[in-house]
Fold this sequence. Notes:
The chain has two domains: 1-65, no CATH class; 68-107. Helices cover 51% and strands 19% of the residues. The chain contains two helices and five strands. The chain has helices at 47-64, 70-106; strands spanning 7-9, 15-17, 21-23, 26-31, 34-38. The longest helix has 37 residues, at 70-106. It starts with 6 loop residues before the first strand and ends with a helix. Mean pLDDT is 77; it is low at 4-16 and 21-30.
Amino acid sequence: xxxxxxxxxxxxxxxxxxxxxxxxxxxxxxxxxxxxxxxxxxxxxxxxxxxxxxxxxxxxxxxxxxxxxxxxxxxxxxxxxxxxxxxxxxxxxxxxxxxxxxxxxxx
Length: 107
């Protein structure tokens, strides 16, 4: 027998023995010293299984989140409120000035 006799190289590159076995690529049968690969149809996951998988992955990612402490939340909220007030005052001033200019142009 030559090199590798009694073995067949499968699709995945793994060396498979010549016996009936089940692989992820299908059934491996020996018939008249020929190897026959029959592809098994892939099972399509149901919508419920997809949703369960998605929720599981979401929970896994939420556990990895570094949540801010109370001091960081208060500091960020203060900055946002101050910025909103500054923009509101700026917009009010621009509106007031434009209304004066347009009133004079119309008269």
